[in-house]
Design goal:
Keywords: Cytoplasm, Methyltransferase, S-adenosyl-L-methionine, Transferase. Helices cover 23% and strands 26% of the residues. By secondary structure, it is α/β, with parallel strands linked by helices. The chain has a single domain, classed as Rossmann fold, CATH 3.40.50. Strands 5-4-3-6-7-8-9 form a 7-stranded mixed beta sheet. Strands 1-2 form a two-stranded antiparallel sheet. Helix 6 links the parallel strand 6 and strand 7. Helix 2 runs antiparallel to helix 3. Bound molecules: S-adenosylmethionine.
Length: 214
């Protein structure tokens, strides 16, 4: 997986590569899907959600430009896999999931693997985690119609926010950097397909009928 899907496609960040070598991806998927855990694709997880394709996880983690002392917020815990990857690269990870069952499963996985620098919350991640802000980096692993203002406000000076923004079928992966003067610089990192970001500053609950997860 690491050699062919990541390095072969241009992932160069050593922290990302090491982290993806260490974290056992098969422990983040349902038992009947474990044989596909290292395939070059997203997979269905509990609650009708998905664990993203390994390359996309690596691409987003690399785009965050993490330092080992960073405090990171993730929106969309899902299986817990990307939070586990980030936890091997940065000091503290805060992750929010709207499905309670997924949040509890992820928490159990972190505990059993000894990843003790990850805090999990159940709730609407579009509003961020104000009590723990500001964050050096914010990763959103579901696609929203806009960049939530709450997340921009909770980004530290010099911080990076990576989020898929677009419609419910396709999105552009965007990196926003908050400069020393507080100015926002946006970069387009390419076309992606994510499940919808549902919440106050995302898609409304009633708009998500017939959406196919990535
Ligand atoms: N990071 C996950 C992993 O490694 O398995 C992949 C997550 S999946 C592509 C996106 C997740 O975002 C889903 O579990 C979904 O329930 C969650 N989600 C969607 N909207 C959310 C919101 N407003 N707050 C928190 N989680 C949300």
């Amino acid at each position: 997986m690491v050699q062919n899907q990541l390095i072969g496609r241009g992932i160069t960040d050593e922290m990302v590569i090491n982290s993806m070598l260490i974290v056992p991806r098969h422990k983040y998927v349902m038992e009947d899907k474990q044989e596909y855990a290292y395939y070059d694709s997203a997979l269905e997880i509990e609650s009708g959600q998905t664990i993203s394709q390994p390359y996309i996880v690596a691409l987003m983690a690399q785009a965050l430009k993490l330092k080992s002392i960073d405090k990171v917020l993730e929106i969309g815990t899902g299986s817990g896999y990307s939070a586990a990857i980030l936890s091997r690269m940065a000091m503290n990870i805060y992750t929010i999931e709207r499905h309670e069952g997924l949040a509890h499963l992820a928490k159990d996985r972190f505990r059993s693997q000894g990843y003790d620098n990850i805090a999990v919350q159940v709730g609407d991640g579009t509003l961020g985690w104000p009590e723990k802000a500001p964050f050096d980096a914010i990763l959103v692993t579901a696609g929203g119609p806009v960049i939530p203002d709450s997340l921009i406000n909770q980004l530290a000076i010099g911080g990076r926010l990576v989020i898929p923004v677009g419609d419910k079928g396709e999105q552009i992966l965007i990196r926003v950097k908050k400069t020393l003067t507080g100015e926002l610089i946006e970069e387009n990192l390419g076309l992606v397909r994510f499940v919808p970001l549902i919440g106050t500053e995302g898609w409304g609950e009633s708009n998500i009928k017939n959406v196919k997860p990535c």
